[in-house]
Design brief:
By secondary structure, this protein is mostly beta strands. The chain contains 3 helices and 13 strands; from the N terminus they run E-H-H-E-E-E-E-E-E-E-E-E-E-E-E-H.
Length: 223
């Protein structure tokens, strides 16, 4: 069945944005090929044919970011364009969170990070908001971040949880610049867009209000 894009009404957008700010992904953009990288590895080899450096048992850090992986492959590390691919037990630690995945591909242009692709079964994200003890937890089979476009795509059973709130779908797109969220439904029960909202005390909402606000699952489009 053809997938249908869903534009969420304002109250759902506000809920989703509260869950969807993802400081970990934005902080990854701090990576810069011109800034020194601290690299610690069990072994290193160089493939002259592909100009690729291969590290095993790798720990890499730059500024507030550190990355560990069973293997890391880097190309064109001395030029303004290059890439890093990490695979096997990948952990990315940033100031306010942690990403764990099976592989991560970072692509640079003009020394700056331009794209990040994270995959796992699933890849998991734990993020702590500044000034709060609450943890945002998310998982997805695939995350693609286009830095220049300001677009984050979550796909393959994406789920985001925070403070009893949850949004899940097979495909979620967050436009950082426009602060807009879109989701696709495959039309099957497993592919439905699902939102659970838990009102906080003292905000004027009640569980009955929330149940009335959430659109019924049998609607194909949200007006």
């Amino acid at each position: 069945m053809t997938q249908k894009a869903r534009q969420f009404p304002r109250y759902i957008v506000l809920l989703a944005l509260a869950i969807f700010s993802f400081p970990a992904v934005s902080q990854i953009t701090d990576l810069d090929l011109r800034v020194p990288w601290d690299i610690d590895a069990e072994s290193t080899s160089f493939d002259g044919k592909t100009s690729m450096i291969v590290f095993t048992g790798l720990r890499l850090s730059q500024g507030r970011i550190s990355i560990e992986a069973d293997e890391g492959r880097a190309t064109n590390t001395e030029g303004e364009d290059g890439s890093w691919r990490f695979s096997g037990n990948v952990s990315i630690d940033i100031e306010n969170g942690r990403i764990e995945c099976e592989s991560a591909q970072l692509t640079f242009a003009q020394y700056q990070l331009r794209q990040a692709l994270v995959t796992g079964s699933p890849a998991t994200f734990e993020l702590k908001r500044a000034g709060s003890d609450e943890i945002t937890y998310a998982e997805a089979g695939r995350l693609f971040y286009d830095v220049d476009a300001g677009i984050i795509e979550f796909s393959d059973q994406a789920t985001i949880n925070e403070a009893g709130n949850q949004i899940s779908s097979n495909f979620l797109v967050y436009n950082i610049t426009e602060q807009r969220i879109d989701a696709d439904s495959s039309g099957s029960d497993d592919g439905r867009v699902r939102i659970t909202y838990t009102p906080t005390n003292g905000n004027g909402s009640s569980p009955d209000d929330a149940s009335e606000a959430v659109p019924p699952e049998d609607e194909d489009e949200i007006p």
